[in-house]
Amino acid sequence: MDRELLREHEARNRDFWNGQSDEYQQEHGAQLAVRGAAWGIWQIPEDEVQALGSVTGRDVIELGCGAAQWSIALARRGARPVGVDLSETQLAHARRLMTEAGVEFPLIHASAEAILPDAGFDVAFCDHGAFTFADPYRTVPEAARLLRGGGLLAFNMTTPLVELCWPPEADEVTERLSIDYFGLHEVPTGGTDHVEFNLPYGEWIRLFRSNGFAVEDLIELRPPPDAVSSYRTPVARDWARRWPMEHIWKARRLPR
User: Fold this and answer.
1) Number of domains in the chain
2) In angstroms, rounded to a whole number, what is the distance separating the alpha carbons of residues 21 and 92?
3) DSSP characters for 221-236?
């Protein structure tokens, strides 16, 4: 994808992930591969969460697939996945893992905000993928376009609450509100090279409804007491045992 076709935040995020993906997969790839279909920074199994339900025979698109560990797991469960990512280096890792796993499905180098495949999917989902690193005012309408009537949108991301309690200069999440809630959109990241997004809860709901979705659930993930993560420290785990650090939005595309 030509850089001039990207918005400023898309170009920054593509450059960030192209530069970080090798280190990222080395640091976190083993955890992501252990359970396959598992959610979030503590890898809570989908078999427990049941956010997607049965995917057998379903057309599934992963928006911001990274190295496609999730899509590989869903292909093994009988889904027909398509992986989309803005980083060509992440997609190179995805091709390697697909070969190792003995599965094959399309991978598309594109932004989740636009230039995606034709509509006709049963499920659109991601786990800290495009809905963290792309503008929701563009990704939600694009997901609505991609899904058939009755199709499921499900994505996991950081909660607004943890955004408010994690000031950009801090190494750990705190117990104090530090960031303004109203007007939340582009999240302060302390001057890092990438851009992240989130919205207030009411704004998410209005955005879903205005794009033809009915909200089905908001699953607030809680790690077990002994959870270990390559992403977070025990301090963050103990915080997430008290307050939601991640949640999964589930919304259903209304009939067209």
Assistant:
1) 1
2) 10
3) E---TT---SSS-HHH
* CA distance readout (Å), 118 to 82, 114, 223, 256: 12, 11, 37, 16
Name the burial class of residue 95, with classes exposed (0-12), middle (13-18) and buried (19+) by CB atoms within 10 angstroms of its CB. Answer: middle
Please give the torsion angle defined by the CA atoms of residues 212, 118, 85 and 165, in that order, rounded to the nearest 10 degrees. Answer: 0
DSSP annotation of 121: E
Residue-by-residue DSSP string for 164-194: HTS-TT-SS--SS--S--TT--EEP-TT-SS
> pTM for this one?
0.94
CA quadruple 179, 183, 189, 191: dihedral sign:
negative
User: SS3 for 43?
Assistant: coil
**Residue 32's CB: how many other CB atoms inside 10 A?**
22
CA distance 217 to 225: 24
Within the chain, which residues score under 70 in pLDDT? 1-4, 34-35, 190-192
Neighbours of 148 (CB within 10 A): 15
- Per the structure, the complete domain to which residue 170 belongs is given by 3-253
Integer Cα distance of 191 and 76 in angstroms: 40
Identity of the amino acid at 82: V
Kind of pairing, strands 213-221 and 38-39? unpaired
| CATH code of the domain in which 59 resides | 3.40.50.150
* Chain segment 60-77, per-residue pLDDT in tens: 999 999 999 999 999 999
